Amino acid sequence: MIDHMTLTVRDLGRSRTFYERALAPLGYRVVMEFGELFAFGDDKPYFWMKQGDPPTTPQHIAFAARRRADVDAFHAASLAAGGSDNGPPGLRTDYHPSYYAAFVFDPDGHNIEAVTHREGAPERRSARTRTASRGASKKKGAGTKPKRRGANAKPKAKRR
Ligand SMILES: N[C@@H](CCC(=O)N[C@@H](CS)C(=O)NCC(=O)O)C(=O)O
User: Fold this and answer.
1) What pTM was estimated for this model as a whole?
2) Mutate which of 60, 84, 106, 108 to test ligand 1's pocket (most atoms within 8 Å of Cβ)?
3) Whole-number Å distance between alpha carbons of 127 and 134
4) Where are the beta strands (DSSP E) in 42-99?
5) Spatial distance between the Cα atoms of 21 and 19, rounded to a whole number of angstroms
6) Quick one: which of 13, 36, 71, 159 has the fewest CB in 10 Å?
């Protein structure tokens, strides 16, 4: 539905450096420039930036990540680039069971996120997930392998 967007930032140089570092783990870089305007993307420019007075209400932008390790790397890179933590990498099962995301505030207070919806190997879970699942009893037999056919099982009919 959305082809591209423009974020207004107070200090273009500061934000460019921040986003170059934050988005590198996700595979996004500056791919187009028009004077003071520039855009991050991969084969296409999706995320434009311009200097001005940002709206008083911070914006929320979620960047697509290919895999969970990239979400982790986005979070670490964003903090190292001067962002502040708004939620460590982990599952947010209240959104849906495989919603794996991390949240950071950029230099202007915008809430940026990296998210992947793909299933991953069992890994670190957010505190929220742990709380939600605490006390949930495991059903007997749930998650176990189906029983193998025993020696007394009815043999398959032979094809004639
Ligand atoms: N600290 C929360 C952040 C959650 C969050 O920011 N969720 C997004 C939706 S995916 C949101 O509420 N955005 C609205 C906004 O930032 O104004 C976490 O780690 O789960």
Assistant:
1) 0.73
2) 60
3) 10
4) 45-51, 60-64, 84-85, 90-91
5) 5
6) 159
Q: Which residues fall within 8 angstroms of residue 140, CB to CB, at 6 or more apart?
A: none
**Tokens 């949930």 belong to residue:** 136
pLDDT digit of tens for each residue in the chain (160 aa)?
A: 788 999 999 999 999 999 999 999 999 999 999 989 999 999 999 999 999 987 778 899 999 999 999 999 999 999 999 999 999 999 999 999 999 999 999 999 999 999 999 987 655 555 554 444 444 434 444 434 444 444 444 444 444 4
Domains and CATH numbers, the chain: 5-52+59-133 (3.10.180.10)
CB 30 within 8 A of CB 16: yes
Q: Is 69 helix (H, G, I), strand (E, B) or coil?
A: helix
